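I have been asked to look over a protein record a colleague put together. Alongside the sequence sits a line of tokens, each denoting a local backbone shape. Please read both lines and tell me whether the tokens look consistent with the sequence. I do not need a full report, just your reasoning and any doubts. I have pasted the whole thing underneath without changing anything.
>
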Amino acid sequence: MRDYLASEQSPPFVILRHDVEWNSRRAQDIANAELKLGLRSTFYFRVNTRAYDIPLMLQLQNEGFEIGYHYDTLDRCNGDFDKAIALFEEELSRFRRAGVNVYTVCSHGNPRVRKRGYQANYDIFKKDEGLKRRANILGEAYLDLDFSAVKYLSDAGIRWNVGLTTKQIEALLRTKEQPALYILVHPDYWSRSWIRALALKCATRGIKIFRINNIIAAIREYSNILSKTR
């Protein structure tokens, strides 16, 4: 994500993003798979779950991955913008004090939280136009992307948003019909345990730029490698 926002990119390219919601071990498995394939993606970590794993973040950072802040402060502050902005700045500071270099941030979306007076957690940047400057970040993973210029593929909700299977996504990558792709993969969602997958689906219902061939291999590896974690 940092590379995309820092300079103009020419297709073909893929922005590969991971939102780490609960289980940092699965994020590590994703990273190990990508390391073998020569990929470096962006991992966004939440603060208020057990995914907040500073040693792992520092390890991934040293391995060349980008680490970002996956924030949900408006949700947690019940729509109070002043409190949400203050909490955002406080938690971003926690990352940096721990040695994590945060260049980009990404809003977390929780459909189970009733939103009063706002539509998404990234509305704090719309309310406070100086926040991005004060936070010293390049941008926000939703607000600062031109979605008309990229094809967005997301596994949010435990299914691909474009109505395709993983094998069909792989075929799409091979054809290069979409030269500019933005792919979101949640490490927590990739499991061969049907019980775990069902539990996650019930719960959810209630970046970097690479060669496309490597992304194809990565998507195939996720299912194989992550099935070994518990």
